[in-house]
Amino acid sequence: MAYIISVVAQKGGCGKSTVARLVAAEFSRMPGNWDVKIADMDVSQATSFAWMQRRHKNKHTPEIRVEAYQRVEKALADAASLDVMVLDGAPHATAQTLEMSRASDIVVIPTCTAKDDLDPAVNLARELKAKGVPVEKIVFVLSRTGDSDAEVAEARDYLERTNFRVATGSLPERTAFRRASDLGMAMTETAFPSLNERATSCFASIVETLQQPQAETKKTKGKKAA
């Protein structure tokens, strides 16, 4: 049985697919040859699928599989033979988002720092909680942030006052991150160690609820099931 990690958003432009690829890449790089796949649930855009094609063309490793899915049910069925399935959700897909979130071990909600982004993100988290998604599963990620430390701190304080978890650090808007994506790479694969370290720290904070002994047990079960 795989870990299911959903990356969802109420609106586009918040770095949702970029965060999904970060999570997939870091699990793929973990010791033990974890079998990881991204389910691109936004079939109209299929940006993660296109990213995979660029990654394969440029021969980057580790190899990360991406498949476009119309139905969450099919993606979850395919997850049975994996160690990790990252569901890259479509924006505004309320029913799909709820279905994904209920099935997930972690629900990641990326958001920028403007109120126009923070409010929809918080509203989504509250809606998921109201519909039965455990609050401990939900984590905000500050993404595409600017250069103002004060602005990032204010956004973090705003999110933390909602009593949902907020991942450590932030993922800034940087040319190096965009260029990495253009070449089929994740946020931890840029040419700049300081940016890679920021992304790695954020990933570790996202998945900190998955304790290592539990992860090893679940991973072993997944391999046996396969």
Automatic annotation (TrEMBL):
Record-linked InterPro entries: CobQ/CobB/MinD/ParA_Nub-bd_dom, DNA_Partitioning_ATPase, P-loop_NTPase
SUPFAM superfamilies referenced in this protein's UniProt entry, alphabetically: P-loop containing nucleoside triphosphate hydrolases
Residue span(s) of domain CobQ/CobB/MinD/ParA nucleotide binding: 5-183
A Pfam short name: CbiA
Protein's name in the database: CobQ/CobB/MinD/ParA nucleotide binding domain-containing protein
